[in-house]
Amino acid sequence: MGLYPTVLLVAAAIACNTHEEYMADVVNSPFHLGRGGRDLPLSGNVGPLTLLPQDQGDESPACLDGSPYGFYFVPSKTGSTKWTISIEGGGWCYNETLCYQRAQSELGSSKNWSKTSGCGCMNVLGDGIDENCNCIYMPYGDGASFSGYRPKPWPVGPKGQFLTFRGIKNFDATIDAAMKLGLNKATEFVLTGGSAGGLSTFLHMDRVAARIKAVAPDCKIRGAPVVGYFLDHDNYAHTANNYTAWMKYIYAMQNLTFGNDGGLMAACQKTFPTDPHYCFMSPHMQQFISTPFFVFNSKYDSWQLDNELQTKWTTKPEQDAVLQYGIDFLTQFKPVESEPKNGAMITSCVCHGCPWSDLELEGKNSYQHYASWFAGNTTGASATHIDPRLPNGNGTIINSQCTKFP
């Protein structure tokens, strides 16, 4: 059952819609197993899988296949009141067929989720990351960055298959559970995630902030989206098979809305009444976020070059298009720079799973810049660090996680 049958939709290979694609991404990227886009090793502590009850009828949390949604909680070993919620990445499923494929994998079903997992904190200690926090890892399960909601199963094809779209219910139910675990007494909180989890961070940081402030008004709340700034950008061939069209289809298919049951921001809807799917895209919706956030991203993001620009830069015109993409990234990033509460580390390394520990600007690595911003030691322009060079620092950044260019 398609909502826009005339739109040419993307092939399955660019996302994690099968078990095989998921396992390959687990090996090749830092967006799974509680890592949240960090390239740092986890502390070694693990927490058990908690499956949430499905006792709220059509509002119960659920994965794409209808199985229970759940999370992993790794508590502080010392009774810290610092908290992180880390959201798994893994792309999106762009139509019903791809979502049905995903529903058979770990990104759309909890049936084969691990019994335990680690979780990477993004709280700060000194000039680095504080690994001693209360950390909740939210595995992906819905294919739309925890944003959709349909109360009834959604039909797929002629054989009676169905999908369950409950992303925002999964998010809200996890926050409910976290409150009972001590989030209601937090003194510091960070929402983070990588890739599609980075988009989730942009979309939902104000939502969770409002919940926390209602019970812990003095809590320090920050967002740390990792490679979640996906441009609104045409592809190299200028066809309808582009990222913006895919996100528009997801918006309709999964019924992304702006009310209590919706995962999108009402203020954004007022600005884009005729293009509400823009509110599912970080460059358009970020202007409405009140929570301070620090962006980790590459201006030559390799996923975006592969899947938005859709070129392998084998010819001179394609290579020029890559360079222009970096310019376009900075243009679309200008509104983030203009807001003094925010910070950023924007690298020229051609990466998606980026080596943030190794990437340095102005004598500090990415986490040191983040820690300085988090502590309030840098604000405004001094908290935004952008590599002005061409891909891979004009060829001077040599790292296996930075894709060679050209």
Helical amount among residues, as a percent range? 25-40%
The backbone outline, from C-alpha atoms, is globular
Give the neighbour order of strands across the main sheet: 4-1-2-7-3-10-11
Task: Output the structural class.
Answer: alpha/beta
Number of helices: 11
Give the overall pLDDT as a whole number: 94
Number of extended strands? 16
The proportion of strand residues reads: 15-25%
Describe this structure in words.
The chain has helices at 19-28, 96-102, 167-181, 196-215, 243-253, 266-271, 282-285, 302-309, 316-337, 366-374, 391-395, and strands at residues 47-51, 70-74, 82-87, 116-117, 123-125, 128-130, 134-138, 154-156, 161-163, 188-194, 220-226, 294-298, 343-347, 360-361, 364-365, 384-386. The strands form 5 sheets. It has a 7-stranded mixed beta sheet, with helices on one face. It has a domain at 12-291. The longest helix is centred in the C-terminal third of the chain and has 22 residues, at 316-337. The chain is α/β, with parallel strands linked by helices. It is globular. The termini are far apart.
Concise synopsis of the structure shown:
The chain has 406 residues and is of the alpha/beta class. It has eleven helices and 16 strands.
Name some characteristics of this structure.
406 residues; alpha/beta; 7-stranded mixed β-sheet; 3-stranded parallel β-sheet; 11 helices; globular; disordered N terminus
